[in-house]
Amino acid sequence: MANGSPKQHQLEAKRKRLTWILGVSGLCVLFYVLGAWQHTAAPTNLAQSITKVACDVSKFAGVSSNPSSESAILDFNSHHQIQINNTDSVNEIPPCDMSYSEYTPCQDPRRGRKFDRNMMKYRERHCPTKDELLLCLIPAPPKYKTPFKWPQSRDYAWYDNIPHNELSIEKAVQNWIQVEGDRFRFPGGGTMFPRGADAYIDDISELIPLTDGSIRTAIDTGCGVASWGAYLLKRDIIAMSFAPRDTHEAQVWFALERGVPAMIGIMASQRLPYPARAFDMAHCSRCLIPWHQNDGLYLIEVDRVLRPGGYWILSGPPIHWKKYWRGWERTAEDLKQEQDAIEDVAKRLCWKKVVEKGDLSVWQKPLNHIKCVASRKIYKTPHICKSDNPDAAWYKDMETCITPLPEVSGSDEVAGGVVEKWPARAFAVPPRIRSGSIPGINAEKFKEDNDLWKDRVAHYKNIISPLTQGRFRNIMDMNAQLGGFAAALVKYPVWVMNVVPANSNPDTLGVIYERGFIGSYQDWCEAVSTYPRTYDLIHAGGVFSIYQDRCDITHILLEMDRILRPEGTVIFRDTVEVLVKIQTITNGMRWKSQIMDHESGPFNPEKILVAVKTYWTGKAKQKQQ
What are the transmembrane regions (predicted)? Predict the structure, then answer.
């Protein structure tokens, strides 16, 4: 007889099965609780890592605590589960030695000396190799002060911010700059305008139309401290002023400290970093550029960047040589030969001599190339370039051929299309878009882009109070696209350096100039052609998504820190993943930051990171006893 009854076996089996079910259920509950605890821990840590940086947004130098912006602050707990390093483990980036306080990586005089002096090539851009890149923060001078607000900044700058008095001594007679106690004063003088830039511009205005809105963009080659550009601004003309980093120490730096657009640059062997047909007017006042040499190469480059019908103004040697030749310490014959050579190059470029009066000579580029093509039977050189992208200007050598203009159907037609007069020009559909030259962009999309930026700037005003308080003057847009950001700011006392990343497709910098704004090409894996601490606000929309796989974004952020003034502001727009990477790095750069929702609300995958560079300076070198 078998041990036990069948009923006992069944009860034992049921008991084991129930025990197993209860055990498994218990484990499930335990793991669920553990999982839920871990699940909530990550966003709490992330929120802490953000609020540790700046829980109270009102503490930011550049971010307001306006109640209307509270809803814009990004709620990571609700929307995101991304694990990043806590601020406890932030990699602090140290300050550089004070000897780097004025460092310009791609125009470093020490590096430049290694390069060819022929055609001034050693003063062109020569950027550090990957091994030479600095991993430190460029320090401000020990007594650095917030620059004067515009328009006072046009006439004054703090001595401690740019402690260089060489120009005040070297150019004392010419009234470029004077030292008055703890500040510099800019009287508006220049080598060829002893009565001041204002009176000099009035003289030009008698020769060409400066006040009817037809001239808006200008380029000043060899600009000094940019007084010409400074005094054009009140006439609604914006000039791109450039000069090399040379023996006239810090001239471009002074220009930017004054709140006047400027770049470090030189006419040497490479094209200027601007598109074709960009400027309505070009200017040289004793700029020492040898216009008649190298087969007219430099005048050919001016021709490339001048708009059809644009003007070239020349003052200083050799103009009016009969009066000045003794003071210029050159022979009359030498100066006459130089002027004759310049006149000859201008004729070969099909320019028309408008007038020569007093110390000024003015030429005008033709509206189109109909007659110029025909004249090649007479002038064999320079020929008209064949297969060339006229806008290509990033590390591209100049050529001794005329940049072709777009074709026209009649001799009175403006090649490439007519631009509206300023200020209508800012929002009128640019000729490059009207003609279909920019792939994927038509008049409707252009209008949509303007509306988009109008909304964005209205949003920025709510979260960044200095935007409407006049504390920002120099602004850089790192990825300017159609120039919508600059257009939306046109009513404020600011100017924008519109940067289009080099080799962008489509290339939109020509559109920006047609709208009456200025800008430059730039590869963000390299440093900008400017001095440290020259911009108040930097806008970086989508830049890091473009460059994160091309180069180390830490070095892009360090370059932004170099050119940003203490207490300056940066607005990043990107995916939250990219912004978290950025914030992790900037937490170690003495920046305070806050991630916020897109202006359209939390469901847009693009977010906004507003960051402020805190005020700090380098330490003064102690004198040895």
Answer: 20-37
